[in-house]
Design a protein that fits this description.
By secondary structure, this protein is mainly α. The chain has three domains: 255 residues, no CATH class; 52 residues, no CATH class; 65 residues, no CATH class. It is built from 22 helices and four strands. The strands form two sheets. It has a two-stranded antiparallel ribbon with strand order 1-4. A two-stranded antiparallel sheet has the order 2-3.
Length: 496
């Protein structure tokens, strides 16, 4: 276990990773009840949704742990699920299979963007100051989620927000969760976030916030699986309807952009807590994270549970000591078990997790010290992200406001050169794959040809290599897509 996940190498222990996985699971467990409640409005069976939500989250979180080896957990994203419920009834003729096909298509497209290097290139082009701002904005957003879930912050009478009812049982449980978590953390007690959740759950029993489970075991229902390939009323597959409807394609694009920036912000936030964020604000080994996240989005559409995405609540497990994929695997296994015992899991109220989320928000505020607030070209765009994310209640919207502000301020100050263009890896995936394939099929005795291909492949796959038309031979680009690439051509472009 230690060798597989490099637990000791990352200065953690198996016990710490298991505890962090449990913390993350409890912070996310609300989705088991909330996702079916939201999507059932589109006409989907709630029982089937609960089962699929657990299995989808469990499988993709385990994949994240194994392939990315980072403490990131995945589940059906809030916000997108509400949008899907809406378009199912308004734009899809009441057929939720078509709505899930939109998610499935969005996931496939964003996966292609990752494989082509575009998604990673855009993230690398973000100025360092904005990366710090994203962490701060996400911290405030996480804290706001926790405070709202506990009823400590509510919609005010005549104001946008206000203080909730201090006599409310939910409010009291939320305060207990915060006090216990902070008190234990201040004493450096291991597992303070998890203990805070457990104490709040127990405290919620006499207050009526923690309800007795409605049974012990829930039957498995796979009726939502395969939604994109289900037949619609006109006899076509749901995915075909999406591909032939321009309006649904526009919706898929908008969801893609939301997923794009949500995952970017979440990855940076968790990386900060999990100590895999570099000094210049880059997430270490981000490609496998993005690949799994993209596959998860498509998997969510296939399973009929909306887009499965990386959850910002993963920061709670990272703050509790999670450093490896073992944390994610633990969370994923618990989600799969929850598919059988969902009635028991749902007793953990969102108010009980308030303390963990608020404390994580506090920890992420430390990034604010890395921003030069005296320089308006840095401070103002950073402020727009910090304020925009929690105030719009949207990660993607807040990040977008900051990006726009950065460009506008740079242009007015005459510093247009500061605006970075994303450097896209121009060596396409297809030639890389073909290089591997051709090498495998060459006769072993043809050592010269094999050597040339291996040299070219090594060059293409070398990290940080500038892959431009000036570096690679002209013949290489002649036969790259869209002109078409064949095995024969690849043999021709290899040089001595």
């Amino acid at each position: 276990m230690d060798e597989l996940f490099h637990v000791s190498e990352r200065k953690s222990t198996i016990g710490t990773e298991l505890r962090a996985g449990l913390t993350t699971f409890l912070a996310m467990a609300y989705i088991i009840a909330v996702n079916p409640a939201v999507l059932s409005g589109a006409g989907i069976d709630a029982g089937a949704l609960a089962c699929a939500t657990c299995l989808g989250a469990g499988i993709m979180t385990i994949c994240m742990g194994i392939f990315a080896n980072r403490p990131l957990a995945c589940a059906s994203g809030l916000g997108i699920n509400a949008m899907i419920a809406g378009i199912a009834t308004t734009m899809c003729g009441g057929d939720w299979h078509v709505a899930m096909s939109v998610i499935f298509l969005e996931g496939i497209v964003i996966l292609l963007l990752v494989l082509c290097g575009l998604r990673e290139a855009i993230m690398d082009a973000i100025p360092v100051v904005l990366r710090h701002a994203i962490s701060v904005g996400l911290g405030l957003f996480i804290a706001m989620i926790g405070l709202c879930d506990a009823g400590i912050i509510t919609a005010g009478a005549g104001t946008l927000v206000g203080l909730g009812d201090i006599a409310s049982p939910t409010f009291i449980v939320g305060i207990i969760s915060i006090v216990v978590t902070v008190a234990l953390a201040s004493r450096n007690v291991p597992g303070s976030l998890l203990i805070g959740i457990i104490v709040a759950v127990i405290a919620g029993i006499p207050l009526g916030v923690t309800h007795a489970p409605e049974g012990l075991i829930a039957p498995l229902d796979f009726s939502t699986f395969g939604a994109p390939f289900a037949s619609t009323a006109d006899g076509n597959m749901a995915i075909v309807k999406v591909l032939t409807d321009p309006m649904l394609l526009v919706v898929a694009f908008s969801l893609l952009m939301s997923d794009f920036f949500d995952t970017m912000g979440t990855a940076m936030a968790v990386a900060k807590q999990g100590e895999f964020l570099t000094e210049d604000g880059n997430v270490e080994d981000i490609r496998p994270i993005l690949v799994v996240d993209s596959v998860a989005a498509a998997a969510g559409g296939f399973m009929g549970v909306s887009s499965i995405t990386t959850f910002v609540e993963s920061t709670s497990g990272a703050a509790d000591g999670g450093r490896t994929g073992l944390t994610s695997v633990t969370t994923g296994v618990l989600f799969i078990l929850a598919a059988f015992f969902s009635p028991i899991v749902t007793i953990v109220s969102s108010a009980a997790t308030c303390g963990a989320l608020v404390y994580v928000g506090y920890l992420m505020m430390s990034e604010a010290s890395e921003i030069d607030w005296s320089d308006v070209s840095q401070g103002f765009p950073a402020f727009m992200i910090v304020a925009g994310v929690p105030f719009t209640y949207s990660i993607s919207a807040g990040i977008g406001l900051g990006f726009i502000a950065y460009v506008i301020v740079a242009l007015f100050k005459g510093e247009a050169s500061k605006i970075q263009a994303a450097h896209v890896d121009r060596s396409p995936c297809l030639p890389r794959l073909l290089l591997c394939s051709v090498t495998a099929k060459l006769p072993k005795q043809n050592t010269k040809a094999r050597s040339r291909i291996e040299r070219l492949r090594a060059f293409l796959l070398k990290p940080g290599t500038a892959r431009t038309r000036d570096v690679l031979p002209p013949k290489f680009w002649t036969f790259c897509p869209p002109n078409g690439t064949t095995a024969g051509y690849i043999l021709q472009i290899c040089w001595a």
